[in-house]
Amino acid sequence: MRWLLDIHKGQSSISVGSGNHDAHLFVILLHGRGSSSEAMIPIAEQLSMDGVRFVIPQAGLNRWYPETAFGPLEANEPDLSSALGRISNLVDDAHEEGFSNEQIIFGGFSQGACLASEYVARNARKFGGLFVLSGALIGPKGMHRNYPGSFEDMPVFIGGSDVDPWVPHELILDTAAVFHRMGADLDLRIYPGMPHTINADEISRVQEMLANTLPIKDERI
After folding, report:
1. What are the boundaries of each domain within the chain?
2. What is the pairing mode between strands 104-109 and 52-57?
3. What are phi and psi of 169, to 5 degrees?
4. pTM higher than 0.85 for the full model?
């Protein structure tokens, strides 16, 4: 059926945080497999601060692509291309609302983290930042990755576990190496023994990224 070629087209998004006129950062936050945009609201609320708007898109069928992130790319098509296109549309929306690239931050958990990292790597430029929570770049182990572009010290936080059954430790390290090679200001944190989840230290480090990216307020009177 034709609609299956663009499974994420027309799906809704949830907006959390500062309104259009008060926001200085536009954060695209992506949910994991089998989850939903609503399930990411508590994460957005934990990260919330003045001047930050979170946009949380919903994936068709509650997943961004059907197979494992770490198998052949073609196994996840056409849904992967549809998912990447959905993010591109959100970036266009942000630009239309007046946000620059350096005011756009990407992040996600699990499958959403994999998708966020893959989109940013394929579209390398100095965005506001990227946070990858229990995820890695999409594609099989040993895949040659020669993405064009540079991040020019864009902040990237990658948090994960050494025993995650869904995201192999070595692929997290490989992902970190790719972003470092492409000029990101990388903060990699491996939490020994952590299950497939998000911990308080990760929340704190993402909050720090957001705070450092917000414009400095002039408190003079």
Report:
1. 2-213
2. unpaired
3. -55, -45
4. yes
Q: Which CATH number fits domain 2-213: 3.40.50.1820, 3.60.130.10, 3.40.50.360, 3.10.350.10?
A: 3.40.50.1820
- Answer whether 170's CB lies under 8 Å from 148's CB: no
Give DSSP secondary structure letters for 116-147. HHHHHHHT-S--SEEEEES---SS-TT-----
Residue 60 neighbours by CB distance under 10 Å: 18
In DSSP terms, which residues pair with 53 in a beta bridge? 17, 26
Q: What is the pLDDT of residue 19?
A: 85
Cβ–Cβ contacts within 10 Å for residue 168, how many? 16
Which positions of the chain have pLDDT values less than 70? 1-4, 216-221
Radius of gyration of the chain from its Cα atoms, rounded to whole angstroms: 16
Rounded Cα–Cα distance for residues 85 and 87 (Å): 5
Listed in sequence order, the DSSP H helices in the chain are 41-47, 79-96, 111-122, 169-181, 200-213
132 CB contacts (<8 Å, ≥6 apart)?
107, 108, 113, 114, 116, 117, 156, 157, 158, 159, 160, 175
